[in-house]
Design brief:
single chain; 236 residues; alpha+beta; 2 domains; six-stranded mixed sheet
C-alpha cells in the first residue's frame, strides 16, 4: 500500500541530493521518514538502518533499487511497543525542559476518516486515555507541544484546549522531514498518496532550496504549545 508513498519520498530525496550535493543515502536519512516507517527509529534500529543505507549506497539503479529494498524491509519491519500509543495519538516522554511532544498518525487498520465528524468522539477518548496515562506515569511534564501540517485543519484544531489552539503559529526553526509532521499531508486516511498533493509537490521540486527543503511542500507544518494543566483539565 505504501509503495507510492515510499517512491515519492525517494524521488524527493533524489532531488535534494542533487540540490545539496549529497550522496543519495545521506539525503534519504535527512529528508524522508522512511526510518520511522520501517520502525528503525532510535538506538535499537540504528544498526539495521545503517545497513539499509549502506546497501542503497552500493545499489546500481539508484531510486528503483532503493524502493525495492525499502519495500522488502517494510514487510520485515520489527514490531514496536505500543505503551505510548493511543489510537491515532502517541507521545514522546518529556524532554529536559519538561516539554511533551504529541503526534497524530492513523493506525494502518483505520476504516473511516479519523477526523470525520462521526469520529471526533473517538479521538477525544484517545486523548483522554493518553493524558490520563501521562498524568499517572510522567512526573516531569510542564507543557505539551505539537508540530504538524494538521493544524491547518479546523477538525484537528478543535480537538485541543483553546489556549493550545490559539497558540498555533509557523515554526521558527528548521523543520525536520523524518516524521509525519510534514510528510503526512501527502497521504489520505487510507494511507494512500493523494494525487493532488503528489502533483503539487512534484511541480515544486525544481524550486527546492538546499538549505530549506521543507519549503517545497504545499503546506508548511505549524506548531502549538500550552501548559499541560490545560490538557489535564480537558482530558482527565
Amino acid at each position: 500500500m505504501l509503495e507510492a508513498y515510499f517512491s515519492l519520498q525517494l524521488r524527493f530525496a533524489e532531488r535534494y541530493a542533487a540540490a545539496a550535493g549529497l550522496p543519495f543515502s545521506v539525503s534519504i536519512a535527512h529528508c524522508t521518514n522512511l526510518r520511522r516507517r520501517l520502525n528503525l527509529w532510535g538506538p535499537a534500529g540504528a544498526s539495521r538502518w545503517n545497513d539499509l543505507l549502506a546497501r542503497i549506497g552500493d545499489s546500481v539503479d539508484g531510486r528503483s533499487d532503493a524502493l525495492s529494498l525499502c519495500m522488502a524491509w517494510y514487510e520485515d519491519r520489527p514490531r514496536l511497543a505500543t505503551e505510548r500509543s493511543f489510537g491515532c495519538f502517541s507521545f514522546d516522554p518529556p524532554d529536559t525542559s519538561g516539554v511533551l511532544r504529541i503526534h497524530f498518525v492513523p493506525p494502518e487498520n483505520t476504516s473511516t476518516s479519523p477526523l470525520a465528524s462521526a469520529n471526533i468522539g473517538a479521538r477525544v477518548q484517545e486523548l483522554c486515555a493518553l493524558f490520563s496515562h501521562v498524568r499517572r506515569t510522567e512526573r516531569n511534564v510542564l507543557s505539551v507541544r505539537g508540530v504538524s501540517w494538521l493544524y491547518h485543519r479546523d477538525a484537528y484544531r478543535r480537538l485541543f484546549p483553546p489556549s493550545y489552539a490559539m497558540s498555533i503559529r509557523p515554526v521558527a526553526a528548521s523543520l525536520h522531514l523524518n516524521g509525519s509532521s510534514t510528510w503526512g499531508q501527502v497521504l489520505n486516511w487510507r494511507q494512500e498518496v493523494k494525487p493532488d498533493m503528489r502533483d503539487a509537490l512534484l511541480a515544486r521540486l525544481d524550486t527546492m532550496k538546499a538549505e530549506a527543503p521543507w519549503e517545497t511542500f504545499p503546506l508548511q507544518a505549524l506548531t502549538a504549545t500550552s501548559d499541560v494543566a490545560k490538557f489535564y483539565e480537558r482530558f482527565t
